[in-house]
Amino acid sequence: MGRGDLSDAEWERLRPFLPVSNRRCGRWRDHRQVIDGILHRVRTGVQWRDLPERFGPWKTVYERHRLWSADGTWERLLQQVQAAADAPGEIDWDISVDSTIVGAHQHAAGARTDPPPAPGSKGVEEREHQDEAPWQSLHARLVEVVLEARAWAARAAGLPASFTSARTAAAVRCP
């Protein structure tokens, strides 16, 4: 398993929601291998043709991503993973708003009134991420893929790039 690949816990969370082959076009390549390839591509921005061989043929990975983006599979996976994590109460649905969504007037920028907090040690930050539930990192990865899929759809529809950035991110990001 390479860096950035689905962990066993993430895979077990995702596997029940994946589509099954209709067997008209033959057997599908292993979903886990292909999804790892898609996640690698989204994370690194590498060209499809430059995907490492461990993910299988690049064209298979590309076609699966294109197909699932077009038919809404990525959106459904994200919703189902969120619903599965919400059922036992693992999601805190507090809303957070950042500056990419809410604009401030140019005069709203001001000087700090108190000194910034002292930075923590690097080890504290690493331990903080180790406490994440498996659905949290899976959710973050699916959000990246859904954002890319929506950007593809917007480009295909001829929408401006600004439409796909903040509005799409605001619609997908949850806890």
TrEMBL record:
Residues in coiled coil: none
Residue segments, region Disordered: 105-133
Residue spans of biased composition, Basic and acidic residues class: 123-132
Insertion element IS402-like domain location: 6-77
A Pfam family assignment: DUF4096
InterPro entries, alphabetized: IS402-like_dom, Transposase_6_like
Superkingdom assignment: Bacteria
Protein name: Insertion element IS402-like domain-containing protein
The species this protein was found in: Streptomyces hydrogenans
